[in-house]
Structure to design on (413 residues):
């Protein structure tokens, strides 16, 4: 990708970015009009081919999305469960064929029959109550699933209050940031997004880059079949994620945090924004946080439907308003990331683990799990298990324990 284009797209700053603008222009009809894309090209001083090229990449910006009112989940778990034909049949009683679109996995893998309507996700028996849903009965979108563990409930514990939860953060602000980083390195926390790269090293690489602007990005573009652990953390444990971003900002010198959340998780967007607002009310965002000479702010960017954006450099291109194509590395994002500035991109679960480490120390985290893979991991069991739900397990837990002890074995067809 052109470094000049990245610089140009960052000219107006994070709060006025092309990707957000395209999303806003698409809301009225489901796709940005041609005149809108021409106007945006002029506004950002780029060619119209750039705005057209970007919009044509995403499921919820493409012209094919125009006029859609309701979306059926076509994620692997729902398709394998064989529930979606019945959902479509129910929807056709209320919507024309042209109004019915598709979304790839709504994170309702534990009960299937998932669909999206009017900014909310539904599953289970909800399609049998479409009259009530169309009449705006918001209670029907609630979903319940088992939450358990086979040891410590680090990521699945109870949240008390902002004052209590953020005490370790305030204590960290009193320390030299190098000591805080050292605890993270001692923990041997590895990225939970798949690659398993040590988080401490990633933070250190970014810290060592000289720049007056740095970014922390939470990659919440979860889209793997059967996975809804990110959705759980965003909706049920939002402060764990925000805490992790604040700590990451402190040790790297970053003052901007971005949560890139998939459009298929609208409730997550709402709940994270509420958590950010609550933090702001208590003085944990903005300039000179708690008088400790540390600045940090949060911004949510809602994705527009593209599986490849789960890859960190494609995600960065997406935020910039470019087509989300994978960049050649090096340079790595910690060296040149968003708008060519040093950037740390971490998965939701990785960031959420930092609270335990900062509160209890790196050795405490490292004492859990195995020598090479420390800590706990969230696993998601779909509707093909007798006990579907989300479970927190210690790394090194045998698969047999997950399937039979926690999942109750496989459900009979």
């Amino acid at each position: 990708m052109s470094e000049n284009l990245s610089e140009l797209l960052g000219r107006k700053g994070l709060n006025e970015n092309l990707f957000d603008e395209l999303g806003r222009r698409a809301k009225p009809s489901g796709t940005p009009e041609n005149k809108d894309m021409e106007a945006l090209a002029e506004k950002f001083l780029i060619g119209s081919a750039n705005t057209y090229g970007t919009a044509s990449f995403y499921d919820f910006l493409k012209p094919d999305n125009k006029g859609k009112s309701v979306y059926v989940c076509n994620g692997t778990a729902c398709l394998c469960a064989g529930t979606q034909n019945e959902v479509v049949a129910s929807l056709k009683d209320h919507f024309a064929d042209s109004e019915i679109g598709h979304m790839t996995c709504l994170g309702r893998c534990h009960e299937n029959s998932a669909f999206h309507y009017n900014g909310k996700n539904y599953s289970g028996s909800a399609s049998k109550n479409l009259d009530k849903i169309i009449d705006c009965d918001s209670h029907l979108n609630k979903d319940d699933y088992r939450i358990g563990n086979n040891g410590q409930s680090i990521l699945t514990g109870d949240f008390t209050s902002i004052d209590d939860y953020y005490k370790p953060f305030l204590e960290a602000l009193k320390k030299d940031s190098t000591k805080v980083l050292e605890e993270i390195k001692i923990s041997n926390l590895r990225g939970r997004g798949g690659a398993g790269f040590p988080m401490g090293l990633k933070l250190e690489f970014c810290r060592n880059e000289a720049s007056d602007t740095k970014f922390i990005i939470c990659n919440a573009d979860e889209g793997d079949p059967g996975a809804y652990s990110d959705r759980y953390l965003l909706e049920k444990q939002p402060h764990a994620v925000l805490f992790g971003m604040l700590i990451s900002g402190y040790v790297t010198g970053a003052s901007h945090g971005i949560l890139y959340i998939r459009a298929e998780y609208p409730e997550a967007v709402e709940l994270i924004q509420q958590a950010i607002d609550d933090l702001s009310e208590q003085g944990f965002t903005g300039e000179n946080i708690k008088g400790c000479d540390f600045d940090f702010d949060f911004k949510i960017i809602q994705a527009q439907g593209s599986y490849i954006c789960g890859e960190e450099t494609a995600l960065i291109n997406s935020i910039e308003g470019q087509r989300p194509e994978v960049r050649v590395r090096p340079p790595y994002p910690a060296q040149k990331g968003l708008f060519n500035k040093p950037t740390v991109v971490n998965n939701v679960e990785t960031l959420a683990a930092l609270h335990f480490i900062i509160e209890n120390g790196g050795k405490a985290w490292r004492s859990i799990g195995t020598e090479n893979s420390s800590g706990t991991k969230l696993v998601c069991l779909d509707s093909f298990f007798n006990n579907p739900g989300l479970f927190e397990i210690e790394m090194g837990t045998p698969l047999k324990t997950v399937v039979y002890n926690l999942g109750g074995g496989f459900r009979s067809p």
About this structure: The longest helix spans residues 266-281. The chain is about 40% helix and 15% strand. The longest strand covers residues 215-220.
